[in-house]
């Protein structure tokens, strides 16, 4: 069966790949992530601006220490900017594919809603009866408003619960399909390009899950499950609503669904600044944004 490619998904995946390649080239220069760690952002920015405004002849006229500092400041700053852009893109894409999956399922459900036999009519009857006798009890007012009374309402509730479960299952299916079709092949490259770090032990399961994905980066996707000997973090990584899609009745863990849970958890942790990125600026260690005397003067800065 021929696969129908989604143009938007293809463009997004290609953009992600381009940013990964750009960051890989920048990192090939071998500049340390903390090269300018002891200098203020304003000073490094001034060196970068000076380098940007310089002509080749200007660099040649400078003494080697000055020349190297300016070039390093420019290259290092561009690396941090590319890193930030890649993290932004990653967060945006993960959020977008989830939203697109929900919208796709909602449209399908709206199209199917017309097939439900007289459900809207029953709900209208309940609303009308309730408004006519707002002081009455449910048994006196609501039950008689629909054919079949209490049994019909119980059936409606059961159907609604089943629909809710079915909705979540359908969203999971669409989301997993989108991920495996377009973005999964980018995951090893993304994990190789970005170094995630964390100082909060509460998010250790997410970091361990990222490490697991990195270890399996070279294992073909045709290997659908993790080895039984693997310690796969579940709590803090896989939401309750995804457990049935990730872990089967025998405790076997499905890789694609688990990977999706990991990148969503990673996205959430990044947005909360609980996990940060080495070599980034906006997504750097949040402790670097604190004043140097924060620990000694915590009361003053709080």
Describe this structure in words.
This protein is mostly helical and 302 residues long. It has one domain (7-115, 148-289). Helix content is 62%, strand content 2%. Strands 1-2 form a two-stranded antiparallel ribbon. Helix 4 packs antiparallel against helix 7 and helix 9 packs across helix 11. The N and C termini lie far apart (61 Å). The model has no long low-confidence stretch (mean pLDDT 81).
Give descriptors for this structure.
single chain; 302 residues; mainly alpha; two-stranded antiparallel ribbon; 12 helices; 2% strand; elongated
| Arrangement of strands in the largest sheet | 1-2
Q: Give me the count of strands.
A: 2
The largest sheet is:
2 strands, antiparallel
Unreliable runs: none
Order of SSEs = HHHHHHHHEHHHEH
Determine the number of helices (DSSP H or I, runs of at least 4 residues).
Answer: 12
* Broad shape: elongated
Q: How many whole angstroms does the radius of gyration measure?
A: 27 Å
Beta-strand portion reads under 5%
Total tally of structural domains: 1
N-to-C CA distance: 61 Å
Structural class: mainly alpha
Show the helix and strand layout:
Layout: H1 7-27, H2 41-53, H3 56-61, H4 64-113, H5 119-132, H6 138-142, H7 150-183, H8 187-193, E1 196-198, H9 204-215, H10 243-246, H11 255-271, E2 275-277, H12 298-301
Antiparallel strand pairs: 1-2
């Amino acid at each position: 069966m021929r696969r129908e490619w989604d143009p938007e998904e293809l463009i997004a995946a290609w953009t992600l790949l381009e940013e990964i390649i750009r960051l890989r080239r920048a990192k090939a220069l071998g500049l340390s992530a903390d090269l300018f760690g002891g200098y203020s952002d304003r000073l490094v920015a001034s060196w970068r601006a000076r380098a940007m405004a310089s002509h080749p002849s200007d660099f040649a006229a400078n003494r080697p220490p000055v020349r190297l500092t300016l070039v390093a400041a420019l290259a290092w700053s561009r690396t941090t900017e590319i890193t930030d852009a890649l993290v932004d893109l990653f967060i945006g894409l993960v959020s977008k594919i989830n939203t697109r999956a929900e919208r796709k399922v909602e449209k399908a459900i709206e199209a199917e809603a017309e097939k439900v036999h007289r459900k809207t009519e029953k709900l209208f009857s309940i609303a009308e009866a309730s408004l006519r006798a707002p002081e009455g009890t449910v048994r006196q007012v609501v039950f008689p408003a629909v054919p079949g009374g209490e049994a019909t309402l119980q059936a409606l509730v059961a159907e609604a619960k089943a629909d809710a479960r079915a909705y979540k299952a359908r969203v999971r299916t669409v989301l997993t399909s989108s991920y495996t079709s377009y973005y999964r092949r980018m995951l090893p490259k993304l994990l190789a390009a970005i170094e995630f770090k964390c100082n909060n032990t509460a998010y250790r399961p997410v970091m361990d899950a990222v490490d697991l994905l990195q270890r399996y980066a070279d294992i073909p996707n045709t290997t659908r499950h993790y080895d039984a000997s693997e310690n796969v973090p579940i709590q803090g990584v896989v939401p309750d609503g995804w457990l049935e899609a990730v872990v089967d009745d025998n405790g076997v863990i499905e890789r694609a669904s688990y990977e999706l849970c990991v990148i969503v958890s990673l996205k959430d942790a990044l947005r909360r600044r609980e996990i940060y990125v080495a070599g980034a600026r906006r997504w750097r260690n949040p402790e670097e944004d604190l004043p140097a005397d924060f620990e000694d003067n915590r009361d003053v800065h709080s």
